[in-house]
Amino acid sequence: MSAVMEGPLADLGSWKPDHCSLVKALEIVGTRSALLILREAYYGTTRFSAFARRIGVTERIAAQQLRHLTEAGLLAKRPYRDEGGRTRDEYGITEMGRDLLPAVLGLMQWGDKYFQDDTPPLLYVEHETGEAVTVELRSDSGHRVELEELGVRLNPDWRPPRD
């Protein structure tokens, strides 16, 4: 089964997914190293050398991804200086980066189910209660929505971006 395509979208042969938000998102976070840097930022990693070391990439790749994610607005640089050292930048997660957390946790949850025999190496819990945290589709009223219940329609308020 699939989502229910509504109105003019029902004829998949008559339209193309131009201006797709998924394409725009993947241009920013569509690489392994970008997602792993975000994972590390969620875990509290802030320093350049720690990002490179923890995700197992070269410093060149870490620098490229940190610059890319900072320019895109998911991370923000802030200066720090260790005693006796020179001023350097560390990286913190921004609101935009925080808003991506459900997508990243959703990928982890999917990987746990299909590649870890549904026994995850790490548990994501609400810190205060210890209750498990899961990502799922819910309507505004709180109803869980399955793929077959999902409708896709044109947004009458959307306008193509100006060039």
Automatic annotation (TrEMBL):
UniProt xrefs under InterPro entries: HTH_HxlR, WH-like_DNA-bd_sf, WH_DNA-bd_sf
Pfam families for the chain: HxlR (PF01638)
Cited PROSITE patterns: HTH_HXLR
Keyword terms of this UniProt record: DNA-binding, Transcription, Transcription regulation
Domain HTH hxlR-type: 20-119
PANTHER family (alphabetical): TRANSCRIPTIONAL REGULATOR, MARR FAMILY, TRANSCRIPTIONAL REGULATORY PROTEIN
Protein name: Helix-turn-helix domain-containing protein
Organism of derivation: Actinocorallia aurantiaca
